Amino acid sequence: MQGITDNISLLVVMVMMGIFILVASFIFLLLRNQNRLVAEKNKRQAIEIEHQKQLLRSVIESQEAERTRIGRDLHDSVGAALYGLRVTVDRFEKEHPGHPFVQAFTGTGKSLVDDCIGRVRDISHNLSPGILAIQTLTEAMEELCYTIDSNAGLNVYFTNEAGAAADSLDLTSSLAVYRILEELITNTLKHAAAANIHVYLGMEENKLVLDYRDDGKGLPVGAGLNRGRGLQNIESRLQIMNGVYTSASTGGYHIRISISMPLNQL
Fold it and tell me: How far apart are CA 103 and CA 238, in angstroms?
């Protein structure tokens, strides 16, 4: 009788162990399947994000190519026509020497044509900054800051502590950083009524950092940036470089935007 009882107890233990093993196996397979599904989902999301970045990069590169074409055509056609008009005015002036009305007319005409030539040249340059093809990114940024400082009636201070790292970027990434700085300066000129702009380019933990500040009107405390076209352009360019930005307004009177971009992904 005792032997039968022991056999039954052993059988119960074995059955319970079998059930435990089955449950444990089921849970293990379920978790492994869930992990596999999560991994596949993450992989698909990563592929989709990368695909979106590639599409965005293609769109931006197409836009830049179109801007380059328009800038070149503007310089070659409109610029050439204006130079031709300038030559015509000079010839007209030489053909009527000493005539007061002619002198006044040609003087005004040459001034207006020269102004138009300068504007066309500036627009062409902004559409297609060929400077990046012959200069480094930091040199182009410094020249942009110098141009604004000289012509826009405010002080622009550029500090470069990034060294050779910034100049090692490919043309697409360099152009993106240049365009971001353009957008920030344009926003200041349009809305901030600032007297000073500070631009800092440096490195932090293998990340390229662009720190931009102005002393204009700024934002109300606690308010975020207005998501206008300029900010959307900045976000699009940062997205393809895996960059991020933060913004702050000090006392409601200043704006500061810090942008960081991982160099190993540029």
Answer: 54
- What is the distance of C-alpha 227 from the center of its chain? 14
Q: How confident is the model at residue 144 (pLDDT cuts 50, 70, 90)?
A: confident
- State the residue for tokens 């040249």: 121
Which residues are paired to 256 by β-bridges? 213, 248
Instruction: Write the pLDDT tens digit of every residue in 152-198.
Output: 788 999 999 988 888 888 888 888 888 889 888 888 888 778 889 99
- Tell me if 255 sits within 8 A of 218, measured CB to CB: yes
| Residue 125 identity | H
pLDDT single digits (tens) 12-28: 778 788 788 888 888 88
| CA angle (105, 73, 169) in 5-degree steps | 125
In order of 62, 73, 179, 244, the CA distances from 132 in angstroms are 17, 19, 11, 23
Q: Which of 199, 111, 114 is nearest to 159 (CA)?
A: 199
Rounded to 10°, the helix 137-151/171-187 angle is 20
Other CB atoms closer than 10 Å to residue 138's CB: what's the count? 19
Distance CA 124, CA 242 (A): 29
CA distance 216 to 150: 18
Collapsing DSSP to helix, strand or coil, 252 comes out as coil
Neighbours of 125 (CB within 10 A): 15
**Residue whose token pair is 């340059």:** 125
The SS3 call for residue 194 is: coil
pTM of full prediction above 0.70: no
Cα-only R_g, the chain: 32
Please give the backbone phi and psi of residue 136, each rounded to the nearest 5 degrees, phi first: -80, 170
Residue 74 CA to residue 147 CA, distance in Å, equals 21
